Amino acid sequence: MDALVTVAAAMHDLTKTDGERNSRAGSMYVVKPKMHGPEEVAFADQLYGRVEQILGLPQYTVKLGVMDEERRTSANLAACIGCARTDPRAK
């Protein structure tokens, strides 16, 4: 529910056309603190992908930031980053 409400609340910014958007690329950025390893990152990635579908947003609109705060995340940081899908349009 939190993911859905968070993204829905930010959608108004994507409709602005006056150059006053928060994101020049038309993306939303969600930072997830206290993640506990690659499995949880993969779950969050899947969850936000589904939220994009539900709300009719293009794939990769929501960018997921993983905070390196927990031991399991720190020890497996490369795996955690790999679990978050990468937008193939990004360079």
SSE inventory with pairings:
Blueprint: H1 2-14, E1 28-32, H2 38-54, E2 62-66, H3 71-75, H4 77-83
Helix pairs in contact: 2-4
Architecture overview:
- The protein has helices at residues 2-14, 38-54, 71-75, 77-83, and strands at residues 28-32, 62-66.
- Helix content is 46%, strand content 11%.
- Strand 1, helix 2 and strand 2 (62-66) form a beta-alpha-beta unit.
- The mean pLDDT is 83.
- By secondary structure, it is mainly alpha-helical.
- Helix 2 (38-54) packs parallel to helix 4 (77-83).
- It has four helices and two strands, in the order αβαβαα.
- The protein has a two-stranded parallel sheet with strand order 1-2.
Strand proportion: 5-15%
| Order of strands in the sheet with most strands | 1-2
- Average pLDDT confidence is 83
Tell me about the biggest sheet?
2 strands, parallel
Count of helical stretches = 4
N-to-C CA distance: 32 Å
In the predicted model, the low-confidence regions spanning at least 5 consecutive residues are none
**How many beta strands in the DSSP annotation?**
2
Q: Class by helix and strand content?
A: mainly alpha
Order of helices and strands: HEHEHH
- Classify the helix fraction into a percent range: 40-55%
Q: Which radius of gyration do the C-alpha atoms yield?
A: 14 Å
What global shape is seen? elongated
